[in-house]
């Protein structure tokens, strides 16, 4: 992208960060290559879009999330140096990475041999392990947010930065929490992101490293999200067989299981966090080096987490919304509580319901004498049937039918 036409190029933010060139533009912000005039070093500056900077709530969230990401200090995490605001536009100053994204590596080399894929993926898992240990959830793990330096080191970027803007690549759920192709099914339906959500997205990345393809595709984001919710991700070895391509390396059963354990649709049956994911990846890499890629059913069984205690996979469905109540029959919430009794009186004996008497069809009570017209619900309940008493009936120790 030509940086000549960008108005920020050449400007200095807060008399310290000189914007040199535009690097990339996303749905939420633009990343620039900049020079720290105070420390004489090259940095990356991520500046929020000008239209989003006018939203005080979003700007506060941008600042808050930048602070939470700054607590991370790990070789596989892009470091956060500073944050601020210039002319109403919040910005984050980060470590500048000389290299390329994992997306380019996948496009150029995938399908990768298992040992090469695991070499890269272990560093992603290490970054997630450090983040989850610090209480930070990434929310948007994908190849575009994984950098590979010129020295071959993996760096995960954009920790904790929520997405809240409409974009063809993003989910449109009001609060955007991830890219559709890597979106955990529970985020589509009813849950908030946690460590298991990052594990699912990372498992999709590993699938793509091994096969060169995304597990679910569709004509739009809604179709992709629907498949994540309703269709299990297949084994990478099965996808390679479907592609009809022959490779010089096999995918052992325990590597297939690692992908399945990370991408189970039910989060309760998924690898729980980055720490457990890293431990599983290291077991797989050790076995790959020892067993030359041969199957190991025992290791595969140990990687797969136990199913939920009830033995039934949780059915993910949208959160139910209460139907709007009409004006004639408002929704009533009844809370059962012990009836209050004076301290100097014994509890009253429950009053049996009145006997039903035939109603003369030719006689209709006047509105002023109709029990239904004058009924006012109270906290007392009849103990012998599921009816409620009115305030007037409770005062006279008589039960009525008007709240049935």
From TrEMBL:
One of its GO terms (biological process) is negative regulation of fatty acid biosynthetic process. Residues 357-377 have a biased composition (Low complexity). GO terms for molecular function: ATP binding; protein serine/threonine kinase activity. PROSITE patterns: PROTEIN_KINASE_DOM, PROTEIN_KINASE_ST. Pfam families: Pkinase. The keyword Kinase applies. Residues 17-289 form the Protein kinase domain. Keywords: ATP-binding, Kinase, Nucleotide-binding, Serine/threonine-protein kinase, Transferase. This is non-specific serine/threonine protein kinase. It comes from Tessaracoccus aquimaris.
């Amino acid at each position: 992208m030509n940086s000549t036409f960008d108005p920020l190029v050449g400007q200095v933010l807060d008399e310290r960060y000189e914007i040199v060139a535009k690097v990339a533009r996303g749905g939420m912000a633009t990343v620039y290559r900049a020079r720290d005039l105070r420390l004489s070093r090259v940095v990356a500056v991520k500046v929020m879009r000008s239209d989003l900077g006018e939203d005080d709530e979003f700007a506060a969230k941008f600042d808050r999330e930048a602070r939470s990401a700054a607590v991370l200090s790990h070789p596989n995490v892009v470091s956060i140096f500073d944050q601020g605001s210039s002319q109403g536009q919040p910005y984050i100053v980060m470590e500048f990475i000389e290299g390329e994204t994992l997306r380019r590596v996948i496009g150029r080399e995938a399908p990768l041999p298992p040992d090469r894929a695991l070499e890269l993926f272990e560093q992603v898992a290490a970054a997630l392990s450090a983040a989850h240990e610090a209480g930070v959830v990434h929310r948007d793990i994908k190849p575009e947010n994984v950098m590979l330096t010129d020295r071959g080191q993996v760096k995960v970027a954009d920790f904790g930065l929520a997405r809240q803007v409409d974009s063809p690549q993003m989910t449109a759920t009001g609060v955007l929490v991830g890219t559709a192709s890597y979106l955990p099914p529970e985020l589509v339906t009813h849950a908030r992101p946690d460590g298991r959500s990052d594990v699912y997205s990372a498992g999709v990345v590993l699938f793509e490293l091994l096969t060169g393809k995304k597990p679910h595709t569709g004509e739009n984001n809604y179709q992709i999200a629907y498949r994540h919710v309703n269709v299990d991700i297949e084994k990478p070895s099965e996808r390679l067989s479907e592609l009809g391509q022959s490779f010089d390396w096999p995918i052992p059963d325990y590597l297939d299981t690692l992908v399945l354990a990370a991408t189970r649709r039910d989060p309760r049956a998924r690898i729980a966090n980055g720490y457990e994911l890293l431990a599983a990846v290291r077991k797989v890499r050790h076995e790959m080096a020892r067993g030359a890629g041969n199957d190991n059913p025992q290791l595969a069984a140990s990687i797969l987490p136990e199913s939920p205690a009830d033995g039934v996979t949780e059915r993910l469905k949208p959160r139910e919304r209460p139907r709007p109540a009409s004006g004639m029959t408002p929704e009533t919430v009844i809370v059962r509580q012990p009836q209050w009794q004076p301290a100097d009186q014994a509890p009253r004996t429950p009053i049996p319901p009145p006997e039903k008497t035939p109603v003369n069809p030719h006689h209709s009570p006047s509105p002023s004498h109709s029990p239904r017209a004058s009924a006012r619900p109270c906290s007392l309940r009849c103990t012998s049937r599921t009816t409620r008493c009115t305030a007037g009936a409770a005062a006279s120790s008589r039960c009525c039918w008007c709240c049935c």
